[in-house]
Specification:
It contains 5 helices and no strands. It is mostly helical and 104 residues long. Helix 1 packs across helix 3 and helix 2 packs across helix 3.
């Protein structure tokens, strides 16, 4: 079963090509595996690549923090500094450009 992230990729229009070479035995096994899943080779490969890409990108953006690191991060977030005059003015300009809802 594919993840929601992988399914999101497979629902997009396929408008790019990717070519690669692979060993003869892998090509045969790929065809066999796709057939067992009731898919074409293209469908099988696209779904497998989408699954790997979504997992790898998620893993790259995940933080693994120790309990002391988590505590320190929460402390820093709770101790946010008082906004400077320049910051407040930039927020006003952003609200004028994009609307106040854009920041939430």
């Amino acid at each position: 079963m594919r993840s929601a992230a992988a399914r999101a990729y497979t629902s997009l229009q396929a408008d790019e090509r990717q070519e690669f070479r692979l060993p003869k035995s892998l090509k045969a096994h790929l065809q066999e595996a796709a057939t067992l899943q009731g898919e074409t080779v293209a469908e099988y490969v696209i779904e497998a690549v989408a699954e790997c890409v979504s997992k790898d990108l998620a893993a790259a953006s995940t933080w693994d923090l120790t309990v002391p690191q988590q505590k320190r991060l929460l402390e820093l977030l709770m101790e946010a500094p008082t906004p400077t005059r320049e910051f407040v003015e930039s927020m006003r300009r952003a609200d004028a450009l994009f609307g106040p809802e854009a920041q939430h």
